[in-house]
What does this fold into?
Amino acid sequence: MVSATSEDSKMAVGLSEADWPPETGRRLSVTRRFLLRPETGGFVSAAVVFSFFAVVAGGNGFLSRLGTADWVDGASQLGLVALPLGLLMIAGEFDLSIGSVVGATSIIVAICSGYYSLSPWIGIALSVVFGILVGLANGLITIWTKLPSFIVTLSSLLMISGGALGVSNWLTSASNITAEPVGSAPGVFASSWEGFDVSILWWLGLVGAATYVLQRTSFGNWVYATGGNAETARLAGVPTNRVKVSLFVATSLGAVLAGVVETLTFRDGNVTLGAQYVFTGIAAVVIGGVLLAGGYGSAIGTVFGSITYGIVSIGVFFLGWNADLTELFIGVFLLLAVVANKRLRQMAVGRA
Amino acid sequence: MCKPIAELRSVSKHYFGVTAVADVSLRLFPGEALCLLGENGAGKSTLIKILTGVEQPTRGEILLDGQAVHLASPRDARARGVATVYQEIGTLPLMSVGRNFVLGAEPTTGRGLLKRMDTREANRLAIAEMQRLGIRRIRDGGQLVGTLSGGERQAVAIGRAVHFGARVLVLDEPTAALGVRESATVLSLIQTVRRQGVAILFITHNAYHASLVGDRFLIMRRGEKLAEFAKGEKTVEEIMSLMAGGDELSGFLAD
It folds into this structure.
C-alpha cells in the first residue's frame, strides 16, 4: 500500500495552501464533556428534587434514615423495571407490556406459594419462563410485522393483564391472593436491613452489569447503533434483530424481577400490581436522558430517573400532601427533562 | 495494464417488465476512479445495487478478480471486498468516532467472560486511519461523530471501509449535500484512498466533481451506457451536455 499525503490530495482538488487543513485544533472543553454525558439531565433532576424536599420536608423526616430508605427502596423497585427498559429504548424500541408482566408475575408467584402452598421458587421459575416467552413474543412480532413496538406491546399489555385476571379468577376465584412465602426466596428477594431492601443490591448489581455491557462490549456498541439507525447498523453487519429481541426479553425479565420482589415483600399477589410502571418506567428512562427515538442514553441515567421518582413520591408523602401531587411533580419534571436533554444533546454535538 | 478487481459484464436488470439497466459493462481497476454519471433515473442506483449485492442482475455477470461470482447480499459483497459508503446513513451522529469506526467488527481484549470491546484500540484505529486520510483536526476518538463536519463524517465511513478490507469502494453521491469546502475534503479523501490502490466507483451527477477525481467516466441515460471515455477526452461542458442528453443543454450552454 502506498501512503498518500494530503499534499497530493489538496493539489488534486485545487485548494490553495491557505485552505489546508480546513480547520485546526478544536478540543472539547471539560464543561462540554460533562454536558455531553447522557445522564447529566437526570443527575440534575435528582439533585434538584432532593434539595427541594430536603429543605421543605427535611424536618418531617425526609432526611432521616427511614425516609432515605423509603425513597431508595422505591427507586430500586422502579429501577429494576426502568434499567432494562432504558436499554431497550436506547435500541429504539418500546415496551408497554411491563405494566402487566409485573402483575402477572405477582399472581403466578402468589398462586404457587399461597394458593397451592408450593415453594416460592417454583412460582419464580414459572415467572421467569413466562417473562422470556413474553419478551420473545414482543420482539419477534415487532420484527416480523414491522409495526411500531408501541402498538405491539400495547396489545400484549392488554392481553397479559386480561389473561392473568382470567386465569387467576378461574383457578382461585380471586384476583388478589395472599402469598405465604417460605424458604430461602423471601431472603433473596425481600429481606431488608435497617429499612433498606435487598432489591437495592439487585438493582445496583444489574446497573453495574448493564453499564459494563453498554460501555465495554461489542453488544453494547450494537445496542447504540441499532437505536441510532437500524439500517446503518445492519449495513455494518450488526445483527439488529437479535439485539432487539434480547432486549425485549431483558425488559420482561426486569418486570418479572420487580414483580417477584414486590410480591414477596408485600406478601400479596395482585393482577394490577405494577400497572403504573407503564408510565413511571418510561418517565424514569426519559428523565434519565435516554433519547426517545433511541441511540443515546446510559444505564446510570435510568438510575437518576428512578431516584427522581423515588424522591418525589416519598417527599410528597412526608410533606403530608396528597399522593396525587407525585404525578403532578413527575409530569413537570418529565417535560423539563425532555426539553433540557434535547438542548444538552444539541450542545453535545455543537449545534446549540 | 493490470487486471480489473471488479467487472460487470453485459448486466441487465428488469423490474416487472421495466428495464432499469440494459446491457451495461464496466471494469474497476486498482487505484483508479471510475465516475458513474447520469441524471436521476438513469439507472446508476440500480447498477451499483447490482455491484454491491443489494440486487441480483436479470442477465449478465459479476466478476471479482476475474472469477464470476454471485453476490447474495451487501454483507456477502463486503466480505469479498466490495464496500459501499452511503452519505446519509454512513455514520451514527450520537456515537463516538471510535465506536462508529469499529461498528460490526469491534476489536476485543481479554477472554472468556472478560472478553470486552477494546475502546482504546477502537479510538486509536479510527484516529490513525483519519490521519492517513489527511483529516488532522480529529484527535479524540471519543468525540461524537455529530460534532464532525460532513466531510469528516465521510472520512470516518470511508476510513472504516478501507481499514476493514475494501478493495472496491462504491461512493453513492458523497458530495450531494455538501458545501464547497466539505466537497473538497471528500474529493481529497477519494484521491488519497485511490492512491492506496483501492478501486473507486464514484457516483455523482456533479460533472465538475467527477472531472476532478475521475480517471475514467461512464455516462448512463435511460438505463443504457451512453458514453465511456478517459480523463482529458471531454470537457466538463461536454460531460454535462452528454448527461442531459445533448441537445437541450448544449443550446442552453451556448448562450
